[in-house]
Amino acid sequence: MFIGRKEELRKLEKLWHSERFQHPVIYGRRRVGKTALIREFIKGKESIFFTGIESSEQQNLENLSRAILATAQQDVTPVFQTFQEAFEYVFRLSIKKRLVFVIDEYPYLAKAYPAVSSILQKLIDEYKNNSMLFLILCGSSMSFMEEQVLGYQSPLYGRRTAQMKILPFDFFEASEYFQDFSPLDMAAVYGIVGGTPQYLLQMNNSLSLEDNLKESLLEPSSYLFEEPSNLLKQEIREASTYNAIISAIASGASRLSEIASKTHLETSACSLHLNKLIALGLIRREGPFGEKTTRKTIYAVEDPLFRFWYRFIPKHISLLQNGMIDLVCARIMEQFSQYMGPVFEEICKQWLWRQNKLALLPFTFLSQGRWWGSDPRKKNESEIDIVASDGERSLLFCECKWTNDSVDASVLETLVERSHLLTATNRHYIVFSKSGFTDGCRKFAKSIGQARLVTFNEMM
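Predicted structure:
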């Protein structure tokens, strides 16, 4: 069953119905569902689907020939003599009819035959005005696709008619995969594996959260046990250095100097490695909301599976490899509520964007983020989980509490107090809670007017 990607499908269908040459580029991390999206789109359409492989030029040419001939059903040479001949045959076919031509894992093909981009550029320029070809190039190597396909130096630069960077699902899209998980268990699943479709498919909604954790991730023979390290090896040389950086961040190091110190790297080298991880979508760079200074920049693990894996697996690797899975699972569950705090903040941010799109908030915000800084009155550091702004004078301040206790009035009182550390004409407040609110909190929220209390169940 195909789930999600409605907006991406809508955009592809719009291009399809233009009845003229189109060349969308689709890229994103491995396992994110690019190929599934393309296969859903081409249902009912005449198409040629070819996947590049890590092999020789000749092997790729033979596979391409088979893909073309399987669709064309014409009496032609069993194997094209050159890529130029094969591609030109496809372009000629598309003069008389609408045809989708997919080259999946394009970086593998380009590695096997580096001239492929130049050949495609020449044929696009020659045929684009009288061709109805729908040419899709798809790839998982983020750096290759951005530099060698979309980049200024690429022969294909300027030939694309659209590009789509496919990202993991947000929490609410990921929840569509599982109808039998409770909302709380679904939040936990999202906190462990995130919104990558292939990772979600490893979870079984007929099992408890603990049993899923044991079978899908803690068992050394499971699919996800070595997935983060395998993914790094596929994307990056010298993966050990990047492993150390992610481990340092997952263990609590957030500033460049702290990460460099823990990994024994020069700060300049560490910064370059961090930029690579950011480009891969594994790490994110943050600063206090509304501030442009880089002095307060911190780093966090962006991908939930990587965040979970690097926090809990490396330090327990010997226990797991010696069959002590139940013990490790118990240790993880003891810390799990604390681990879920930042996950809940991310879910709240996603919920706010959805509400913003539907115009269900006090104002339409343009940006949101976390804020931290000095409180001159108390002479200490303060932070606010989420601040959203309309770009003028209205701010929305949010606090997110993932605890088993009902949130009391003191939480909202503190949020109101801290909100005055930022300049605003109109202030609005939302407190998010896993477990609800005390009567005192509800009474205080009503008394100040511009405050809203939202339980996790109300977000679903």
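Summary: DSSP finds 21 helices and twelve strands in the chain.
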